[in-house]
Predict the 3D structure of the following.
Amino acid sequence: MTPTAGSAAPGSAAVGVATAVPVPAPRTPPVPGTVPTPGATAIDEAPPARDLRAVNPSPEFLRLINHDYSRRHLVLSAGTTDGVERLIIAQTTGPLAVFNVGVRLGRPVEPEIHPGELIASAIDRAYAARAHGRSDTSGDGLAPGDGPEVPKVTIEGSSDVERDLEAAVREAESDLLSTQGKAPTVRLVDLVLFEALQRGASDVHIQPVRDLTLIRYRLDGSLHTVRELPGALAAGVTTRIKVMARLDVAEQRSPQDGRATVTIGGGVGASSGRRIDLRVSTLPSTYGQRVVLRLLDPARSPHLLNFAALGMPPEVVHKFLAQVSKTSGIVLSTGPTGSGKTTTLYATLAWISATNGGEILQKDPVRGRGRSGGGHGSELNIMTIEDPVEYDLSGPGLSVSQTQVDIKKGLTFAAGLRHILRQDPDVIMVGEIRDEETARVAVQASLTGHLVLSTLHTNDAASAVARLVDLGVDPFLVNSSLSAVLAQRLVRKIHAACAGRGCSECLDTGYRGRLGVFELLVLDPAMKALIARRCSAPELKAQAQRGSGGGMVTLREAGSALVRAGITTEAEVTRVIEALEATDEVVT
Ligand SMILES: [Zn+2]
């Protein structure tokens, strides 16, 4: 692995090294997508028409969903993009079938509606091809990719962001006809980002609808529409963001991904300012390009958090740390997208690094930070393969080498993991185990003296065992490699200032901030005996609750404890935990 391993992550402090980025005037009005397929109006943004003869389903779909189910519900994979399974469905396909496929595959799904008869023949072709033994081989042997150069932009804040935003919108509107008027759109985007950060948003969505462009912020996991911009501004705003992330401004029909670093509050040449990393994704939709910006604030990097701040109760912290202190085995963090799995693993890597010769960030992992030990990094070789790298873990006292998945260069999770194994690692984090090959290499790694941390997309801890078996890991190997599974969710906390009644500060939701809810399953001998007999997830769960050392506290029980403590509400616990548990239905 080259020293550029961490370069996909945002670089080191680059305060005030701002480049003025020129903004080309919008060339054309937004392309209003391609013509929606009949029936596609059921989905608010119709995808471009797809030639179903050229469709290439993911191998996992063909393996985990049987031909009969696929035909019965007219649902077929069109491959995966960034971990999302694209599904082709018919008008008649039920939402439950779509949902079940997602649960079965263990990844989020995105359906597109197509004519039923075309889907039926595509399904038959796909399963016939599989039966004839055509197999995909993922590329290997490529060096880890150099991360793209990340542009840096300085944005100015505002003392009255609301008022200034209104002004910027008016200015940008009146300026549309001007040939030189670029500044108002730049200012508008700056202010939107500034406001989003001020409110603590994790994502900003710019979503064109019929006559408007919605600006939506994700706060504590939920989307809020905070502003409606006149539709005419959409092209300018999108262009500005694409320029910031060095995307191809002229390309409006294909999805694009990019990154940028913005410094807030420091002008050009200024030596202060808060640095934020942005991950930008664009997707064509019926009314123009949809843009999502993920805001990554290094000041909130999870490695700075202790386990108590994540919401982990002391008894769970002690049991969990006992498992991640081992020098081999697999420890999994599970939950749906957005449940805080990666945050927990980052905190874990930081703890491992700190307790093995790195700077002592957390003398007491439960209560908080101790003194600074002034070490020069961990005595362990800690390496990650992630998709994408969200936070830079190469700070003072930390020595984690992070590599980003790059599908175009053949750097998959499995390939990255094999490269890492040639780099003499002690601790490995694999962003996600979502295919057979990655599962196999992870098991091998854990059996040959490496501690492997990873995530799985399952609803509870016990289901992770079944999922590994689904992915082709023999129960015997699960028993010899898997140490523990930590399932988790994030529940919103009642806004203390308004006692949950709702106020302007919490956008009338009554909630502010989130806290983790955890369920830790440790594989003891009794559990391993059940796994060897291929017992079901509910049987494993029941055994864990009876288990040694006090038994497992389930997500539901942990959630109820938070309700009793007045931290969250029953409704929130039900929304986050039970709604998902109820869908644990077998598909094939
Ligand atoms: Zn409030």
In short: Residues 495, 497-498, 502-503, 505-506, 510 surround zinc ion (CB under 6 Å).
